[in-house]
Amino acid sequence: MCGRFHLAPDEDFYPRFGIKHKDDDFPLSINTNVKPGQFIPTIIRDQKRNKLYGMKWGFIPAWAKDPKIGYKMINSRSETIFEKPSFKSAIRKTRCLIPATGFYEWDEKKNANLFQLKGKKYFAMAGIYSEWKDPQGEILTTCSIITREANKDVGDVHERMPVILDEESENEWMSNDDIGYLEHILNKPTDKSLSSRIVTL
What we know:
mainly beta
């Protein structure tokens, strides 16, 4: 799973993700311990441009009665996402990027291991999102990080890892609704090289 991640943005964040308007809806800040339930920066495709958008981490399906279900849906599995009732609509219609500068997994000794992409500061995790309406009619936008089987760099610590998109596939991930393409992106072998170090949170 991916239960915590690291985001330390600076001025190069905006050009890296093709965001031209720095006054978008969600202000950026450094958070080296992003947790479920927090509002996090995501990127959506809006009228052919990338837009920064704040969402609560923990997916609440539109049909849910109790928003607490979101804490059980911080992750969605790439292998079953097209069949799960909670996710099958979102994977087809509402996909996003969840930018990061690292993610954490815990080893058998309960040490937090920070994984980062070798040679690059930023990466985008594949995400889905949903708009949920509370009894007062207020809309809450929530998201989930899609996970896959861990690669060799992560596998010694944990069996799962987030789906890290190729940089050239990021915009297509948000805008291309072809099911075959999406399945290919989620399930192709990952060649991402990741460094790791034990940290204190």
